[in-house]
Amino acid sequence: MRPRACAAFAVVGLIAAGCGNDVDVELVWGGPPEATPGGAVSTQGFSGFQQEVDEAWERSPAMAATVFLRLDERKAVRTTIDAKAGPEGGGGQTVIVTLDGIPDDSVRTEHWTLGFEEAGDGVYALTAALRELRCREGRGHQDFTGEACE
Predict the structure, then answer these.
(1) Please, which residues have CB within 8 angstroms of residue 52's CB and are 6 or more apart in sequence?
(2) Which of 18, 41, 104, 123 would be a feasible disulfide site paired with 129, CB 3.0-4.6 Å?
(3) H/E element holding 80?
């Protein structure tokens, strides 16, 4: 082997060895877990995810709600987000997300009520999640409830 080729292999080997532990892996939230029969959804997994990242969306309850629900991957005819802050914008905040006209043969609308609390450094932690459904006509209840559709 020629000296230049040997040097090139040695440099590539050193670069690869030195970068092995510095690889930046993007963490991705997989979406909310399944709701209990009453509609409650665990927030523990999302809390753990938030502890592993440092993102701008964590400083806005409405933006954190979009990440928790993976709205970037959801399909609905109309999606509304309504955020309600405590007095003078401080304290806990409630975010209500409604996905109407979702492509499902039994569920017409999903209605999420998400509670957030300030966790320090401007970050809002998700502390409560409730998923309620409105069924398509002939497939169950027409009011929002935690019960499944038929």
Answers:
(1) 27
(2) 41
(3) strand 78-85
57: Cβ–Cβ under 8 A, 6 or more apart, which residues?
63, 64, 66, 67
Residue found by looking up tokens 């230049």 in the block: 4
> Do 40 and 129 meet the contact criterion of CB atoms below 8 Å apart?
yes
- The tens digit of pLDDT for each residue in 60-87 reads 999 999 999 999 999 999 999 999 987 7
The answer, as to whether pTM is greater than 0.85, is no
Q: Give the total residue count for the chain.
A: 150
> Could you give the dihedral angle defined by the CA atoms of residues 53, 55, 58 and 60, in that order, rounded to the nearest 10 degrees?
-170
Is 118 within 8 Å of 91 (Cβ atoms)?
Answer: yes
